[in-house]
Design a protein that fits this description.
Strand content: under 5%
Number of strands: 0
Number of helices: 13
Largest sheet: none
Helix content: over 70%
Distance between the termini: 30 Å
Radius of gyration: 26 Å
Order of helices and strands: HHHHHHHHHHHHH
Shape: globular
Structural class: mainly alpha
């Protein structure tokens, strides 16, 4: 009996080798893997819809085709409208830069004059010219970069790797998702099968609760901020609201970024505190709605992912693997979180802790 156990014993060092090999392969193949990972994640997000259609006595293939067709009908027109809106807003940003600079300089000119009185060696005209040039060049540069990213970035997304491979991967993964789960289940050791599947259910609950829920929150917040900022008269309200909504996936970053940029643009556009307070009101209302209604209902408070851990995972994934890392960050963070909690639970039941 002991010889059988030793025969199947797996050294911890082997697990380390497998772990580092997996992540090294992920790093080397990051440019190739993106459409496959994107397709798998999209299939994972759409799988509940296919399961619901199957309850109406539809086959898995028919349900998959219907869901894919509906997804295409929604995503393609939305992308066309979104790209057009963002391009218009960026063009408006570039055109409005001189006007905004003039208003800002009018407001800060008294401060520059006070500096000139206290420090006679400083020439307010030179300081004003320096500030104006730096701000102007920065805003124009940002605008041109954003416009280039929109025109070229979306062109890159339309490459064959994402235009053809990702939908194909999504379709086949959706169609065969249940079969993959059953085959994976059949390979698990019988004695540990229940505990392993329970662990995976915890992981699935966290990933589903966070990703599906957070995407809904980001979409709703993006629409709310865009409409709200536009209603208070902010010329670039649609762009600021959209950006704030999209990066709300990173806890607190989206709302803070949108708040700061919105206040600066409101001050630059109107030159008064009233419109700045309007922007403050929009973001305060948005945060109230998110904290009290959207996040508790759509994400849930028991997903087990701390905001700091999510921020670290997203930043680390983005630095290491770029956009692929951003897609994998939350699923990997959820898996690591569940495994760590499981390890702590077992440790507290062990003799090492109890003794």
């Amino acid at each position: 009996m002991s010889s059988t156990k030793s025969k199947f014993y797996v050294s911890p060092y082997l697990w380390l080798v497998i772990f580092f090999t997996f992540f090294y392969s992920l790093y080397v193949l990051r440019s190739v893997l993106m459409p496959f990972v994107a397709g798998i994640l999209l299939a994972y997000l759409l799988d509940p819809m296919v399961d619901k259609l199957e309850k109406f006595k539809l086959s898995r293939l028919s349900s998959t085709l219907i869901v894919c067709f509906i997804t295409i009908l929604i995503i393609v027109p939305a992308l066309v409208l979104l790209i057009g809106m963002i391009e218009n807003q960026i063009s408006l940003l570039i055109q409005a830069t001189p006007k905004y600079l003039t208003l800002i300089m009018e407001k800060i000119r008294p401060t520059l004059e006070n500096l000139n009185e206290r420090f006679p060696d400083l020439k307010s005209a030179n300081i004003e010219e320096l500030v104006k040039n730096n701000i102007g060049n920065s805003m124009k540069f940002i605008g041109k970069v954003l416009k280039a990213l929109i025109s070229n970035g979306f062109a890159l997304i339309n490459l064959i790797s994402l235009l053809l491979i990702m939908p194909i991967v999504t379709f086949y993964m959706l169609r065969d998702w249940d079969n993959f789960v059953k085959k994976f289940e059949s390979l698990l050791p019988k004695k540990s099968k229940k505990s392993i599947m329970a662990t995976f259910k915890d992981i699935d609950k966290i990933i589903a609760g966070f990703i599906r829920g957070q995407l809904s929150v980001c979409l709703i917040l993006g629409i709310f901020y865009s409409i709200g900022l536009k209603l208070v008269g902010l010329e670039l309200g649609l762009l600021v609201g959209f950006i704030a909504g999209i990066i709300s996936f990173i806890p607190y970053v989206g709302s803070i970024t949108g708040f700061v940029v919105g206040c600066i643009l409101a001050f630059a556009q109107y030159g008064d505190i009233t419109h700045v307070l309007y922007v403050v009101g929009v973001f305060m209302l948005g945060q109230f709605i998110e904290g009290n209604f959207l996040t508790p209902k759509l994400v849930g408070e028991s997903v087990g992912l701390h905001p700091v851990w999510v921020m670290f995972a997203l930043l680390a994934g983005g630095v290491l693997l770029g956009f692929l890392g951003l897609m994998l960050a939350v699923p990997l963070a959820a898996i690591i979180g569940v495994l760590v909690r499981l390890a702590i639970k077992r440790y507290k039941l062990s003799s090492l802790y109890l003794d």
